[in-house]
Amino acid sequence: MSNQKNNLTTSWGAPVGDNQNSMTAGSRGPTLIQDVHLLEKLAHFNRERVPERVVHAKGAGTHGYFEVTNDVTKYTKANFLSEVGKRTPLFVRFSTVAGENGSADSVRDPRGFAVKFYTEEGNYDLVGNNTPVFFIRDAIKFPDFIHTQKRHPQTHLKNPNAIWDFWSLSPESLHQVTILMSDRGIPATYRHMNGYGSHTFKWVNADGDGVWVKYHFKTAQGIKNLTEEVGTRIAGENPDYHTEDLFNAIENGDFPEWKVYVQIMPLKDANTYRFDPFDVTKVWSQKDYPLVEVGRMVLNRNPENYFAEVEQATFSPGTLVPGIDVSPDKMLQGRLFAYSDAHRYRVGANHQALPINRPRNEVKNYQRDGQMRFDNNGGSSVYYEPNSYGGPTEAPENKQAAFPVSGVADSVGYDHNDHYTQAGDLYRLMSNDERTRLIENIVNAMKPVKSDEIKLRQIGHFYKADPEYGTRIAEGLGLSVPQEVK
């Protein structure tokens, strides 16, 4: 075998006789359709790019591990959290949200923070952001929100009018807007930002007892951000700045690390807490529910191939393991469907079988066929269940924990509609310099908005969060706070 020639082959393994010239009818004749090697090359080339993600299109990914540093077994039976010192391999993808695949890294935008844990009980995906909250709290509004972040259907330009029109008519967005427009809106690098699961999840222990949790990934590198001016300059000089920084840091042995914590809330507290704990536009006060250490995440190995590992990586908050369940969070409930469905469309029905997504333990199920089925498709084994032939069966001990449900089926919102307290608290926590930069960022972002009605409506929300907040923005825009808001 060592003496065998290193032949170029077709995708079906046949040697290629000529890779320089198409087969034609004579030197000037038309190209022949029987040149199957040419047809295959062109057809494959046309399909080399899977559709980019609708959101989080621009991103960078890397491998690493998670190590347990604190015993949390009284809260969850999740196997990868079962003992201090246990390490689980993982893959992380960081990203911007609104921009296309070729957009700049250093724009003002939330950052995706998605982690895939390759556990012994299957993969577990934690699909979060670098902010603890989000703009909306019901998945039914998500397509509309993302439309406002994309391009105008006529001009094909970004549309500040749509962005602020939507936000001004969706006051639940105010908390996230305040974070986005603050210093935290442009992280210096992917290494210098925190990550959050954002949603509320449920941990269940071996006895079936549950608690509500929120995830926090605290960067060991320290939080660093860019000013608007520096971010804009870098966007022009090096639009791949964050991607390059992450790759080079790992390549040079400077492995980024995050300490991982959870907030833990007793199940019964959900009925009495002053904010709805399932509303993703709100945080839980750490004075009420302090951070509990869980472990650390270390990123230490770059991908060998960006497309195979980063572009084809698929994450879903519905990719769960025993001991971790979901909550009634309306945004989370919608994401449980939407994320996996997006991957089935973008990558294919068998995206979970790709090497980057495939669990480290054996998959045993009755799913068959579909595009890009590149394993043995179950061979000749039994392909339905229940069956009499010893095929895999369910494990009742791994059912999700039962929970009570009540109420009238209807299209209803959350019971709590205080969208101003937490945004105002955040504003008041900022230093004078931080407030000034926040105001400047918002004013500059709102100046292109054509409608004074939209500006005034949004100013009203800022004012309700904090009178100084709204007044300074109104002054920056040459407007006055509406009298009815005062």
Automatic annotation (TrEMBL):
Identify one Pfam family in the record: Catalase
* The keyword Metal-binding is assigned to this record: yes
Keywords annotated in UniProt: Heme, Hydrogen peroxide, Iron, Metal-binding, Oxidoreductase, Peroxidase
Q: Which InterPro entries does the record cross-reference, listed alphabetically? A: Catalase, Catalase_3, Catalase_AS, Catalase_clade1/3, Catalase_core, Catalase_haem_BS, Catalase_immune_responsive, Catalase_sf
- Return the EC number: 1.11.1.6
Which SMART domains does the annotation name? Catalase
Q: Which residues form the Catalase core domain?
A: 9-393
List, as start-end ranges, the regions of compositional bias called Polar residues. Answer: 1-25
| Keyword Nucleotide-binding carried by entry | no
- Provide the cofactor list for this protein: heme
Which residues are listed for heme binding in this entry?
339
The record's GO molecular-function terms, alphabetically, read: catalase activity; heme binding; metal ion binding
The record's section on SUPFAM superfamilies has: Heme-dependent catalase-like
Matches recorded under Gene3D superfamilies: Catalase core domain (2.40.180.10)
The GO cellular component terms are: cytoplasm
User: Which domain of life, per UniProt?
Assistant: Bacteria
A GO biological-process term? hydrogen peroxide catabolic process
Q: Where do the record's region annotations for Disordered lie?
A: 1-29, 371-397
Tell me the active site.
56, 129
Q: Which reaction does it catalyse?
A: 2 H2O2 = O2 + 2 H2O
What family is this? Belongs to the catalase family.
Task: Name the chain's protein.
Answer: Catalase
